Request: fold
Amino acid sequence: MSDTQSPQDALGNASRDETMSALFAGLVVQQTNLAMMLLGKSPHPETQKTIQDIDGAKMFIDQLEMLEVKTQGNLNADEAKLLKQSLTALRLTFVEAIDSQSPSTAAEQPKKAAAPAEPTESSVAPGRASTPASEEEARKKFSKKY
Reply:
């Protein structure tokens, strides 16, 4: 007979709104922590090694953005603040991770572009330049920057 309560007991005594608010906060914190781990800001809990998976982190950030859009107007002030702060921190960390990758990517780019394939005249649209767009320009078209 201890005076401490388990999390389930604490949620059992709370109102439905308080329970939902606590579960929402837990979801946001969980998604944020997973994204931070994949951005290399915290070690993996089992291996204690830092990993960097930009695409995986982007998925978690996109899910939090979806939650922000889908729950707009339905969150209390604390929930909205938590979600906004989490997204802001993740976006800044995401940009830092992308920027830290850029020097190594830039060093590898000349090797890949050493022998660019010349487009045939039939593959070039009329009125368009025959030089292929750089990888950077192509990436700008199809990637989302935070």
User: Anything to note?
Assistant: The helical segments are 7-12, 16-38, 54-70, 77-112, 135-142. Residues 68 and 121 are 48 Å apart (CA to CA).
